[in-house]
Amino acid sequence: FRKSDSTSVVVIGLGRFGSAVASSLVQMGQEVLAVDEDQALVERWADELTHVVQADSTDDQALRQLGIADFDRAVVAIGDDIEASVLTVLALAEAGVKDIWAKAITRKHGRILQRVGASHVVYPEFSMGERVAHMLTGRMEDYIEFDDEFSIARTLAPPFTWDKTLAESAPRTTHGVTVVGVKRVGQDFTYARPETEVRAHDHLIVSGPTRLVEKFCQSR
Ligand code: ADP
Predict the structure, then answer these.
(1) Distance (Å) from CA 15 to ligand 1 centroid
(2) ipTM surpassing 0.90, yes or no?
(3) Which PROSITE patterns match (predicted)?
(4) pTM of the predicted model, to two decimals?
(5) Chunked in runs of 10, what are the mean pLDDT values of the chain (220 residues)?
(6) Which of 26, 55, 114, 154 holds its CA 20 to 30 A away from the CA of 33?
(7) How deeply is 18 buried, as exposed, middle or buried, from its count of CB atoms within 10 A (0-12, 13-18, 19+)?
(8) Do the Cβ atoms of 49 and 33 come closer than 8 Å?
């Protein structure tokens, strides 16, 4: 396998997380080299992912033979086997891969990955659990929190905004949040403007400090 452009990504580990990353990348038109030590998984993904090879990613010689040093970006999607995950990140970093995304299953695991060269550590189960909790209690349909406690959420329009323009209900003054978009049933999202009128059953995209976004979504 020879990577043909700078957007190619190597994905190591084709478990649930890695295979989802790899197939999404392929759907987005990115070139992906996928690696797993499990031959059965390699065969299972061979059709969907164009370049799938069987190799042990903790073996730096094997990685070198795959031309890993030519890649700028890698995703290490090995979770349960912490030793393999750490050794793989280390091998990629030593090979000069600059942008290494790695999945961790615990905070300690994540800290080690950062130490050995991961540029981004993700905690898929932890993050999803946190999001579900926020969505459950905060009446949010979707929710993303950034590191600095700033969030963007999708929610049903709270009653106090119904049959008023955003200038009239003034969520920024009353709740300290910004309504970014409004969606009416059967229509696309539109950017919110002061003169945008909100009705019952509309969906809103709201941004602001997490605490205030939650309050807004729960308000009546
Ligand atoms: P998930 O929870 O996302 O399913 P897993 O940790 O169960 O993740 O899956 C990790 C995948 O990584 C498995 O398919 C496993 O075969 C693969 N894997 C583990 N160690 C290595 C290694 N040293 N080299 C290559 N692939 C590996």
Answers:
(1) 6
(2) yes
(3) RCK_C, RCK_N
(4) 0.82
(5) 70 97 95 96 93 96 93 95 97 95 96 97 91 84 88 95 97 97 93 96 96 92
(6) 114
(7) buried
(8) no
For residue 153, what are its two tokens? Answer: 């959420």
Q: Which pLDDT score is estimated for 136?
A: 86
Residue 145 CA to residue 128 CA, distance in Å, equals 11
**Local structure of 202: helix, strand or coil:** coil
Does ligand 1 lie within 6 Å of residue 26's CB atom? no
Which one of 14, 16, 17, 36 would you pick to mutate in the ligand 1 pocket, going by the greatest count of ligand atoms within 8 A of its CB? 36
CA angle 45, 50, 55 (to 5 degrees): 65
What is the helix (H) or strand (E) element at residue 153, kind and residue range? strand 150-156
Q: Is 64 helix (H, G, I), strand (E, B) or coil?
A: helix
